[in-house]
Structure formats: structure tokens, C-alpha cells
Amino acid sequence: MSQTIHNLVSPPTTPRKSFWTISRKLLIPSVVLMSIVSLGLIIYIATFTIRRNQAEASRDLTRTLTAVQFSLEDLQSLSLGLATEMANNPQVQAAFAARDRELLTEITLPTFEVVNREFDVKQYQFILPPATSFLRLHQLDNFGDDLSSFRFTVLAANETQKPVSGIEIGRGGLGIRGEVPVFYQGKHIGVVDVGLDIGPAFLENIKKQYGIDAQIMLEATAAQTATFAGSTSELSGPIPELLIQASTFSQPFYAEPAVYERILNGETLVSRLNFNERTYSVISAPLKDYSGKVIGVLEIFSDRTEIIATQSQSLILSILVGVIASVLGALILVRIINQTVQPINALTETATALAGGDLDRQVKIQSRDELGVLATAFNNMTGRLRDLIGSLETRVADRTRNLELAAEVGRSISQVRDLEGMLRDAAEIVRSRFDLYYTQVYLTNQAQNSLILQAGTGTVGAELVGRGHSLPINTNSINGRAVVEKQPVIISDTAASASFRPNPLLPETRSEMAVPLMVGEKVVGVLDLQSNQSGFLNEEILPAFEALAGQLAIAIQNANLLAETEQARAEVEKQAARLSRANWQGYLDAIHKPEALGFKFERNQILPLDEAQAGSAAENTLAAPISVAGEALGSLVVEMESEDRKTQNAELVNMVAHQVAQQIENLRLLESAERYRLEAEEASRRLTREGWKEYVTVHADQGPSYLYDLKEVRPYHQSKDPLMDESALSLPLKVRDETIGRLVVQGLGSKDTESLELANVVAERLGAHIESLRQFDQTQSALAQSEKLFEASRLLSQAQDLQELTASTVKMLDIPEINRAVLATFNYDKDNNLDSLDIIANWWNGTGHEITPIGTHYPLEVIRVMPMFVSPTPVFFNDTATDERVDATTMQLVQRLNLRAVAVLPLFSGTRQIGALILEAEEPHAFTPEETRLYTSLAPQIATVLENRRQFEQAQKQAERESTLNLISQKIQSATSVEAVLQIAARELGHALGAPLTIAQLGVKDEK
User: What is the CATH number of domain 414-566?
Assistant: First the structure.
């Protein structure tokens, strides 16, 4: 312990000074943050400048593209205007209508020469429908050719007889076409075609006007529709689908191929290209013909080289300014941080000296800021530390001793298995080791509402335990409070505590502590400690007792678990023994095996052991039980010549008895399994046999046998067809080893081995196949039955009343012979005996004997002469005239009612028979299994409807009674005199009950 105190004041190993001093922790992040901010500003400025320039370039290019498109529209209007002016000239119309080419040339050629000089018109011609050139003013000697393969504007104008204008590819290249129809005397005679070129000259004009470059590319497929020379350069386009048509560049260049694929799909894109150390912004737009179809690409180039150079210079200047600002900021931060950290360095030096053992060192900081306050608090802490170290050694020694004692007590109690002895020893060990006045242990009861004293030290503890001392779990005692709060309760001075309850048996208690014994969050008891010294039990000694309480709680849990485990093991062994005896009683059942079985070896012979010999034994015998799972099933008895040999061979006899027990148990299990297998096979064969019996019965009219006479397969009837020879081969048809038929083959010799093997294989497979067919037929029948039952359930649930319910049942059975049906309900007396029967619903098809009317009442005397109608099980009579179950009395009834076929379906509500549904026929009918199953399956649903109706009627009657009672009560309460009350009571009660006489009277007379 002195070594521990020495370690607190001796100089520790001085740690190596870290690189990350406070100055660097403040400076480096600040500089980094400042650099990040500067870099962020530079990046933002650069990004903003670049995006702004790109946006300006995009806007400029878009405006230029719009202007170029307006120029194309102006050319389109010009071409249409020139063509319209010519088409509206009467002289032109007359000459064109007369097909006078010379006159038409004489009239129009001067005009063409003028507009050619003014507007650079490349084409001016007259075209006959549909597209035959009549006169080319720009090529007077070229006419008569068909232009319909590529001059679609001409075709459209001649077809619609309306003006058409727009971009089109012709023999002369790409141009603006204006087509105006010409009419003469109201008749359409052709069109005037005016074409303006939009080739290199058009692009050069745009370049001069807007200061930009441009190029036009045509879609290859569109260009192939017309053949023209010199309209494209020798350079190919950016993709195979495009051909360069005109460009202001001597060497055209392009964007990425993917850009042009998107433009041909109708998009307009802006991109940036670098070519010959120049940077261009390019807008690429689809070029559409007169019909709106994309036939090429129009690109406009803006040289941005100088603008980008200016932009780069601005960025470089911004970077330099940012770097200079960051450096100046870092220098300023270094100055500020050094001034701030200097007092902290002084505080660090003092703390280092204090750690080295110099407790007299003081921090000298004169400032009044937070560092000055920290220095004052540090000096105060140093003074308190000097005082604390002075008393620390004694306190540490006491606590160490207490913990060592707690560990020793824990080791002692962990070696005890018995709970009662363990708690008694634990209480005594704790009392003696810690020099306590009294120690006791409480455990909670099963209901968790009381503490039961289990152990206490000395004569006082024995007396309290003997009289079953207990405490309720509440806050009235410190032990109950410890359980409720799940925390230790300490009373250091009982004289000064208002909550202490003195015990007359323990008068010298001066301090007390109750520590809960907890396993997880569950309190299993309380360790109560009492001392005759005031202040001995306090917070400082509490950790030792808490550790001890934890070990004691675990020991209690382990003891309880051990007891529960031992009890469970004993129960399992008892159950195993009972199960073993039950198994052997079932094995030795006097049917398969005798109830008692034994053998003896005597005079070198094995002989059966009779009951008289089994109970007798000689004096010098050695007996060992034959036990299975702890249950003695028999014994192995050996007679010895002397007592010495009996002792020597006891172990051998016991081992042999053990081996016998194991082997007979194994043999019993094997034989029982074999017995169960045989029973399962027998059950399977029985099911097969019964299934085929039912199948043959149902299909008796179809004939279960067939014959092949080398001509055809036909049903075989033993009464009509000749019998097979005795020499014929007869093979059994088996299913699960059950013979269900035979396969007879005539003409096979006994030596024809191959044919015999084939016949056996066929018989085996035939048996399996017809069994599959029978099961399939049975499944289909069950499915049909389920569908019928579902339909019946639907009809029954939709029935509005009992009449409809009865009719729906007859309809679902669909038995033509049934012509009557009645639904009867049973009435019981107060002793729950059948009293009478009422007909509540009926059905009649109108033929034969009339149906029993609804409301017919049969008393018990009548019911006794027709017991079949009140049978608790379904009854089916195919023909009452020949059925042996019909007695003489019942026969008279069925003859009077002309009943031949009858089906009685009992209806139950729970275990109580509430009625019956009876089907009657005046003709015999053999009820099939499907009909009986369906009819029987309807019973629960019909009974449910009947019971619901009965309960509804009872509820309705009860409601009527309540209503009548309320009405009478209201009238009685409204009366204002005694006479009126009596009159109302007599009148209303008489009306309600239908009584012929009702009297309400009062009489007060002295009795003598």
C-alpha cells in the first residue's frame, strides 16, 4: 500500500512531447480552413466566369441561328413572291395555257434577267403537271424532262393547287423553292418555279453580315434523291449519314459523331471545338425541308479564342490574390495564437512539476480572463491534493482488506451445494470475518410479496428462523425498502435515523445495512448486516458487501437451479420408467406374447419357467434386476453353492443382466416396428379391398369383366359367355398384395417361358394402372361431390325461408323418384325428453299421395310407432317393401302413405337432436354412396339454419313481451288514482294474455 502512495507522488516517466502542440492544433486547422475558403472562392469565381462566358456564347449563337433562320424565311418569301407575280400575269397565263414556249420566253425572259441581277435567282421555270419541265428561263434549251423523282415541292403544288415554298434539294443543289400554281380561265395548267441558292454564296453572305463561320451538311439519303454536280465537296461528313454541302472553312471540322446523331433526331446542341489552335463555340441545328423533314445539319461557328484567353488571365490573377491573402492571414494567426498560448505553456510546466511530485509548485498567471480563473482553480486543486494524499493510504488499506474478505467469503460459499446450509454458513462467515454484531439472509417468496428469513447468526437467528420470521415487501422496513428500490439501504447511526425499527432481540445494533441480492434485474433476497459500532457500516465499505451480495445471489440461483435440475431429472426418469413399463405391457399383451415369460437352465437344459417356480428362490441365490430406463421388468437369478461365490460373482451377474436388458429392449423395438408395419400393410389392403368393393358396386351396370376374342373387346358375362378352359393361364391382379381380379389368357403353354413372363409383367402393371384409374375416378367423384356440396351450401345460405330451404335440398339431390319432403322439428319436455314433433316445412311435386301439411303435430304416442323418423343416425330405405328393418307397425304406416324409398336425415345443434329432414318416394330408389354422402353433409348447415330461426323466434317473442310490459308500465305510471291503476292493470293484462277474466283488487281486513 505504501508503494501505491509512493507511485502517486513520485515523478512518473515524462512523456515525449507530441508534434501536435496547442499552437499547431490552432494554427494548422486555421490555415487549412483559410486556404480551403480561398480555394473555394477561386473555384467559384472561375466556375462562374466560365459558365457566364459559355452562357453568353450560347445566347449569341442562338440569336445568330435565329437571324440565319429569318434570312432563310426571307428568301422563302422572296421566291414565293417572285413566283406569285409571274403566275398572276394574264399574258403569262395565256401563253402557258397555249403551250407557246417562244411567246412565253419572250414575255418572261426580261423579267428573269432583272431579278437574276437583283436577287441572284438561280432557277426560274414553268412546269406542267405533275412535274414536267416546260420552260427553263435559266436554261432555255433544256426542257421536257420529268422532275417527279426529286422535285416534291412541284408535285405538292400541282396536287394541292396551292402555293408551296421551302428548302429542297434539286439538280442545282440545295435551294429555296417557291412553287405557285398557274390558272387560266379557272383551269389549273401548271406551276411557276423560282429557286434561290443557299450554297457557299449564302454562307459567305452570312459570314460577312454576322462575323461568324458556317457550314451545311446534307443527309446522305436525302441527297441521293437528286443528282447534282459540284454541290458537295470531296470531304466526307463526320458520320456516314452526312455529306458536306458548303462551308466557310477551307478545311471543315466537326464535333463528336454522337452529336450529329442527336441533331438528325431533331435536337439543337451547343458545343465547344478546338481547331488549329483556335477555340470555337458551335451551335448545330437540324436543317428541315419544306415538309418539316430533317435533311441535313446547319452549323454556326463563333471564334472564342480571345475571350477565353482573357478569361484565363483573370483566373490566374484571382489565384495570385488568393494565395497572397492566405499567406498574410497565416502570419497574423501565428502572432495571435502565440500570445494566447503563452499562459497555457506556463500552466503546463506547473502541471508537469506537480506530476513529478512537487506539490508546492504554484501557477503564476496575472491575467483575469479564463486562463487566470483556471490557474486559481489549479492552485486550489493542488492544495486539496496534498491534503488527500495524507489520508489516502489508510482508506485504501481498509478497502483492500474488505475486498479481500469479500473474496474469501465468496470462495467459501461457492463450495456449498445445499441452499439452507450454504446460507447459514455464509451468514456466520460474513459476521465473523467483518466482526459484525449480527448477520441474516432473507429470500423472497414465490409471490414476490414477502421476505422469508432463511438464515441468521447466533441464538437470535436460530430463534427467528425457527418461528418463520418474515417481512412484507414495502418501504416500512429497510429490508423491504432495499427490495422495492433495488438499491442498498444504509443506516450509519441508528440513533439518528427516523426510519430505523429496533429489534428487542438485538438491542446493541448501532448501524445497519441491507443489500439486495440480485440476479440480473430480479431481486431474490436481502443480505442484512448489523454492527454494534456507530458509523461502521457506511458508503466506503459498501462495495465489498455489494460484491459479496452478487456472489451470494449467484450461489442462491445456482442452488435453486441445481434443485430444479435434480427434480426435473427425477421426473424424466420416472416418466421414462412409466413409458418403458407401458411399452412392455403392450408388447406382452397375451395376444402376440404371453404376459409372463421366463426360462431356466437346469441339468444342462433350457426349460420354460412356470409361475410357481418364478416366485421361489433358494437361500444362496444371486439376483440382479433386468431394468430398462430404471424400470425393473424382470430379474436374473443364479443359485450359488456358497456365500463366497455369491459375493465374487455379483458384478458379473449385474453386467449380464444389464446386457440382457439392452438386448431385449432392442428386440422389442424391432418386433414392435415389424408388428406396426404388418398392421399398416393390413390396413392398406383393407382400404384397397373396401375401395374396390365400393367401386364394383357403383359400376355394376357397366360390367367389371371384359373379353377379347381376337376380334373385339366386349363385356364378359359368365352367365352368357362360355367359360374358359381349365388349361387357361389365370394370373391374379394385385394391388398392395390384395387380389382384386384375375387376368385369364387361353392358349399359352406351360413351357412358353417368355410369354408367361410377359403375361406376369402385364398383370402386374395392369393391377397398378387400374388402381390408379380407380383412385382418379374416386378423386373426380369426390371433387364433383365437393362442388355439389358447395352449390348446396350456396343455395341453402340464400334460402329466404324454410320452404325454400327444403326445396333447395331436394333440387340439389336431383333424385327423380323423390316426390315429397318434410322438415320436422322436435319438442322436448322439462326433463329434456322427446315430447312431440311438428312439421314446419314441406315440398311436393304434385304427384302421388299428398304431402303432410305444415303445422301437423305428432304427439309422443304417434312418434313411438314410427321410430325410423326420429333416428339419431341417417337412415336410407331403398325399398320399404323388402327392407327387413321395417317392422309390422311401421309397414302399416308406409303402406298407408304409399312410401317405398325413404331417407331420414337427423339434425343436431351441438349434441341435441332438434329435428329431421325426411325425403319420401312412391317408387323404389337405390341410394348411391354419393347421394348418401351429399345428403349427410347437408345436415350441419340445415341444422344451423333451423337453430338460427328458432333463436330468432325466441328473441322476437322476448322482445314482444318486453314491449308489452313497457307499454303496460307506462300506462300504469300515467294513472293518477288507485282505481285507475287497478283498472289499467286488469284491462291491459287481459288484452295481452287473451284471458277471459282478469281481476285486480285491493283488500285490507283485520285478521281475528
Answer: 3.30.450.40
* Contact by Cβ (8 Å): 378, 391: no
Q: Which of 73-77, 127-131, 307-311, 611-615 holds the top average pLDDT?
A: 127-131
C-alpha–C-alpha distance, residues 468 and 617, integer Å:
53
Higher pLDDT, 947 or 1008: 947
Tens digit of pLDDT for each residue in 410-432?
Answer: 666 665 567 788 888 888 888 88
CB 169 within 8 A of CB 295: yes
Q: From CA 896, how far away is CA 695, in angstroms rounded?
A: 37
Q: What pLDDT shows up at residue 8?
A: 47
CATH 3.30.450.40 location in the chain: 414-566, 799-956
Q: Which residue type, as a one-letter code, is found at position 548?
A: L
> How far is Cα 115 from Cα 922, in angstroms, rounded to an integer?
117
Q: Where are the alpha helices (DSSP H) in 635-709?
A: 643-648, 650-698
At residue 381, what is the residue type? Answer: M
Q: What is the pLDDT of residues 122-135, one digit of tens each?
A: 888 999 999 899 99
Strand, helix or coil at 878? Answer: coil
pLDDT at 765 > cutoff 50: yes
Alpha-carbon dihedral 399, 404, 405, 406, rounded to 10 degrees: 90
β-bridge partners, 192: 126, 180
Instruction: List, in sequence order, every residue forming a beta bridge with 413; answer none if it has no partner.
Output: none
- How remote is the C-alpha of 723 from its chain's centroid? 69
Rounded Cα distance, 170 and 177, in Å: 9
Instruction: Let me know the angle formed at the C-alpha of 141 by 137 and 144, rounded to the nearest 5 degrees.
Output: 90
Rounded to whole angstroms, the Cα distance separating 890 from 93 reads: 121
Average pLDDT over residues 549-560: 83
- Return d(Cα 694, Cα 684) in angstroms, integer: 15
Residues 6+ apart with CB under 8 A from 395: 540
pLDDT higher than 60, residue 1008:
no
Instruction: Tell me where in the chain the CATH 3.30.450.20 domain(s) lie.
Output: 52-268+276-303
CB 24 within 8 A of CB 334: no
Strand ranges, E, within 314-435: none
Question: Any idea which residue has 319420401 for its cell?
Answer: 920
Instruction: Give the range among 122-131, 133-142, 545-554 with minimum mean pLDDT.
Output: 545-554
Q: Which CATH number among 3.30.450.20, 2.102.10.10, 1.10.10.60, 3.40.190.10 corresponds to the domain 52-268+276-303?
A: 3.30.450.20
Helix %, strand %, coil % of the chain (to 5) = 50, 20, 30
Q: In the CATH hierarchy, which fold is given to the domain comprising 799-956? A: Beta-Lactamase (3.30.450)
Q: What is the DSSP string of 528-551?
A: EEEESSTTSSSTTTHHHHHHHHHH
- The C-alpha angle 722, 723, 728, rounded to 5 degrees, equals 130
Dihedral angle sign, alpha carbons of residues 713, 714, 715, 719: negative
Q: What is the pLDDT of residues 836-846, one digit of tens each?
A: 889 989 999 88
Q: Report the pLDDT value the prediction gives residue 181, as an integer from 0 to 100.
A: 94
User: Cα separation of 208 and 160, whole Å?
Assistant: 39
Of the candidates 392, 362, 357, which has an alpha carbon nearest to the alpha carbon of residue 377? Answer: 362
Q: Which pLDDT does position 180 carry in this prediction?
A: 92
Share of the chain above pLDDT 70, in %: 84
